[in-house]
Structure formats: C-alpha cells, structure tokens
Amino acid sequence: MSLATTGVPNLDWTDPECPVARALDLVGDRWSLLVIRDAMDGARSFTEFQRRTGIARNILSDRLRRLVAHGLLAQRAAPSGRRQEYVLTDAGHDLFAVVLTLRQWGERHAFAPGEAHSVLVDRHGAPVPEIAPTGSDGTLLDTDTTHVRKSR
C-alpha cells in the first residue's frame, strides 16, 4: 500500500508529478532521514533518538510526529508497558536501499582518503557490497542510459 492511500496528511507537494520530489517532501530534511537511519539500527525510544542524533527535543518531537503521520514509523507500547516506542512500518523499511545508497555515496565522496568512518556490515560481519542499479538486460544504469517518461 502506498503512502498516498494510507491517510497521509494532505501535503502541498513541491512537484506533484515527480516521485523524487514527493519522497523529498516526506523525508528530505536532515533530521528525518537520521531518525529513520537510527530506527533501522535499533533505536526505539525518544531518548535513544535524541542521544544518537543530538537533535533538539522540539525538533525531534516534530520529526517523530511527522514520520508517524506519514506512515514511516508507528507507535506502540514498549515491552515494559510504561512508554511508547517507535518502530519502522513497511514504508519505513522500504527506505533501507535509499539510506544504504546515501551511505555508500557518503563513503565515496564525504571522507578524505583513509579517513575513518563507520561501515555497514551484514550478519556475517562482511561489508555490504556497493549497490549498482541494472536494467532489465543486466547492464549498469546511469544518467546516460535512463530518462524520465512523463505521465501526461
């Protein structure tokens, strides 16, 4: 089910016909993607998100509220029953490839050669391989081998 059909509050879309623009309208600010990143890494509570990101309480409250309203996170009772926790929805989980691709871009372009940085590893401890989009025939895709087909 798409976010468009799950009761997302009516947004003033930046570019209503562009999927990239709509995605950025939903998660395109710095803090939203960092909250999603930390949820993917196991953060569940307000306190955990704040500690990991250093985000101000008022901004974190706003981002969590928006991510829940847009169907990327859901709130549920924590196992203790004393607090609420935030968990990724299916739409939130679907951002994994986006966060991974952004991470890999950052590894290539945001660090000096040899500069230390975190590494995403699989369950066996091996670094996650580079994502490389391919076409239906298996060839690598890039800006020279793709184009946007307008819907109208």
Automatic annotation (TrEMBL):
InterPro entries: ArsR-like_HTH, HTH_HxlR, WH-like_DNA-bd_sf, WH_DNA-bd_sf. Gene3D superfamilies: Winged helix-like DNA-binding domain superfamily/Winged helix DNA-binding domain (1.10.10.10). The keyword Transcription regulation applies. Residues 18-114 form the HTH hxlR-type domain. SUPFAM superfamilies: Winged helix' DNA-binding domain. Residues 134-143 have a biased composition (Low complexity). The keyword Transmembrane does not apply. Keywords: DNA-binding, Transcription, Transcription regulation. GO terms for molecular function: DNA binding. Residues 131-152 are annotated as: Disordered. This is DNA-binding HxlR family transcriptional regulator. It comes from Streptosporangium sandarakinum. The lineage of its organism: Bacteria, Bacillati, Actinomycetota, Actinomycetes, Streptosporangiales.
